[in-house]
Amino acid sequence: MTFPIRGADVAVSAESLICPPGWTGIVTLGRAAISTVPTEGLEAVVREALDDLPVAALTDPEQLAAVLPVAEVLGPATLAYCDERAFRSYEKGASERVPADHPEIADLLASVPVEDAAECGLAEITSPAFVVRAGSRVVAAAGYRHWPERVAHLSVLTAPDRRGRGFARVVASAAVAEGLDNQLLPQWRARPEPSRRVARALGFRELGVQISVRISTPGNWTGTGIGLGTD
Fold it and tell me: Concatenated DSSP letters for 191-225?
């Protein structure tokens, strides 16, 4: 599926990468948007609802809840992109390249809150992982998952007790460089401001917004209210 020039397009994709399984995902870039739905039965419902909203409102949870039977929401989060000309490499401190399935990556994921582990997406990377150690312990790691249309979707995680020390920038810089070397477009998805600051420091520009919604059974929809997930 490719982005329309403007307006919103909807496609059925049970294995969409822009939302959790069984959810509906929406991504906006400029004046255009794409949405994926998990089943054919939702396609017409979502298409009609999105047609009623301007693109700028498609990632607003309250406005979506006014036109769709929304049960839960994850997001919204900004989407930022970086090319070779904009990239500002950061090599202060050495990062180490390890396989994505290295046991120490699993150890790092296990050491953080469940929400942080799910948010970062580090368990799903298809690239090598780039890590920083404190002593023998991995305290930060980054990599990317290869998405369609030659996109490298970045995943970055720092141990809670080591945040604010530049480690995220070190490992993310290495992962971005790897993606660019492979002629991929790095993509950074973030909600928290500290993560967005790291992306901006590396040269990323915020160009879009992504949100995921779980749509309830229409018969149970009252037309008001949403349940907020823990994205």
Answer: -SHHHHHHHHHTT-EEEEEEEEEEEPPGGG--SS-
β-strand pairing of 151-158 with 185-190: parallel
pLDDT, position 144: 97
Could you tell me which of 106, 111, 150, 102 has the C-alpha nearest to residue 129? Answer: 102
Tokens of 217: 């059974």
* Structure tokens belonging to residue 104: 């120490």
Of the pLDDT bands very low, low, confident and very high (cuts 50, 70, 90), residue 220 is very low
Residue 6 pLDDT: 58
Which residue in 28, 25, 30, 67 sits closest to 45, CA to CA?
Answer: 67
* Structure tokens, 106: 């699993």
218 alpha carbon, distance to own chain's centre:
28
